[in-house]
Amino acid sequence: MIIKKFQASTEQEAVLMAKEEMGSDAVVLNIKSTKHRGFKKLFKKDVVEITAALEEKQPTSSIPSSRINVAVAEDIMEEEKQPTAIEEKLDNLQSMLESRMKEIDAENREKPELKEKKEEKNVNFSFLQLVYNQMLENEVDEKYANQIIGEIESSIKKESNLDSILSGIYQKIVLKLGIPHEISLKEGEPALVFFVGPTGVGKTTTIAKIASDFKLEKKARVAMITSDTYRIAAVEQLRTYANILDIPLQVVYTIEELNHAIEQFKDYDLILVDTAGRSHKNKEQCREIQHLVNDCTLLQGMRREIFLVLSAATKYKDLLNIVDVYSQMGTYSIIFTKLDETSALGNILNIRLNTSADISYVTSGQTVPDDISILDAQKLAKHLLGGGE
Asked: How far apart are CA 220 and CA 245, in angstroms?
């Protein structure tokens, strides 16, 4: 892993510097503002310092493919004792884990037969075991939990402290989650965005939230199309949102009508297409959606994006079946809904690692236009390690 720091007058400039030097895959781990006080501020401007990391790609072998540079991680932890440092993002996670370790030690002291084994145990191993169990508690797949712990364990030095170990695991999860994909607008390049997924995951409400953000906040020209004619309530729900936002809406039944609607909205910045919810078990219905998405006619300069909408409350086994069926549509990003309906968010990391698809938006309620945001990888990593709200 490559970890570097960049300073600039604004956060945006610092992020751009990191992207230019380290590439688009660089992930921001920490942001710290330095404000000069007293006499100094007359001569020196305030600066923003970011810490960025890039995971190096290495050939596959029996040894874990990526390792944390523990020495660098320790330097960061030692240097950044500011309120915005990584340890504050983890809140009291470390103290909670250390308390649990003390409890385990106390239990072992009461069991003489375990004394010899306890003395042989490495303190770092005990700490890693607690973190591992915490990830499993948050329903991270055992395979990925082992992968993360294995990569960290192989790079731990005997003298490494718990701060650096926890920081390394935290950073590893953030890097694996990657940079979330957000719908962007480009001049002269209309975006045709399809939303697909199983029934009952909240596609229609999610589209309304995104439409509201782009219309009201980004001042974009937005149009909506729905092919979800199987549910009358879905059409009426979207029509209500369209009327409130003063956004045109077309209802289509065939791919020919879809192409006509695309032609009609060619001068708009963003065209959002709601598709009918389909069970992943019904292959024929899924092929209908695939035909609609992949075989429609794109106009010159128009780009197509696909978002697979999934519920965070769905069982992992079912999610694997769903992403397998929808993988035939080509490249897609993932939106996770209903984060408020589950306390275990490990499936977000699981599906990210299983599909390599970018995670995009997450939603946590029914309120439009609120209750939607871009995935916060740092917040999710903290939650998976037991530092959730």
From this structure: 12
C-alpha 22/C-alpha 2 separation (Å) is 9
Task: Give the closest residue to 29 by CA, choosing from 59, 9, 56, 49.
Answer: 49
pTM for the full predicted model:
0.72
Where would I find the H helices in 138-282? 142-153, 162-177, 203-212, 232-245, 255-264
Q: How far apart are CA 238 and CA 226, in angstroms?
A: 8
- Per-residue pLDDT tens over the stretch 97-127: 656 555 655 555 554 444 444 443 457 778 8
| Cβ-based neighbour number of residue 373 at 10 Å | 15
Which alpha helices (H) appear in the chain, and where do they start and end? 11-22, 70-79, 86-89, 93-109, 115-120, 123-137, 142-153, 162-177, 203-212, 232-245, 255-264, 283-294, 316-326, 346-355, 377-382
pLDDT in tens, 45-82: 678 888 777 766 554 433 333 333 434 334 434 444 44
Listed residue (17, 150, 185, 166) closest to 87, CA to CA? 166
Query: Tens of pLDDT along 252-289?
Result: 999 999 999 999 999 999 999 999 876 666 667 778 88
